[in-house]
Design goal:
The protein has 3 helices and 3 strands, in the order αβββαα. The protein is α+β, with helices and mostly antiparallel strands. The protein has a 3-stranded antiparallel β-sheet with strand order 1-2-3. Strand 2 and strand 3 form a beta hairpin. It is elongated and about 60 Å long. The mean pLDDT is about 90.
């Protein structure tokens, strides 16, 4: 991938955290001095169904197959991950969660993950301000 494309993609993904559907996790990953780590990602929600459509676009029946919610993310320059909530089968119709669920889970995990993200010999994270 050309560096320019990667840079543009990283910028777009950072907007999802800074001002988009993953905004709730913005600022959750900070160094000991309070400097936020660069972060970005992409959210997605799936209410996956089989529907029978009648005349005029009317839904005749709807069967839930599963429900998913995912957040794919990066933290700093070297760390990335994926969190997915998944409910299989017909019981999925009893759930209404969105991609806000895995985003909130990641936010809750921040205190446990931060020791592994601190700059030093064992990581390669750089603060957001150091990259600018």
């Amino acid at each position: 991938m050309p560096a320019e494309v990667a840079q543009a993609l990283r910028g777009a993904l950072s907007q999802v955290v800074d001002a988009g559907t993953a905004k709730r996790v913005a600022g959750s990953f900070k160094l000991a001095d309070g400097t936020p780590l660069a972060m970005g990602g992409k959210t997605g929600t799936g209410d996956n169904r089989i529907e029978a459509i009648g005349a005029g676009g009317r839904i005749l029946s709807s069967k839930s197959i599963n429900r998913t919610a995912t957040f794919v993310f990066y933290i700093g320059d070297s760390h990335f991950g994926t969190l997915t909530a998944y409910v299989p089968g017909a019981s999925a119709q009893n759930f209404k969660f969105t991609s806000a669920l895995p985003v909130q889970v990641l936010k809750g995990m921040a205190p446990f993950l931060m020791p592994y993200l601190q700059p030093g010999s064992h990581t390669q994270c750089t603060p957001l301000v150091a990259r600018q």
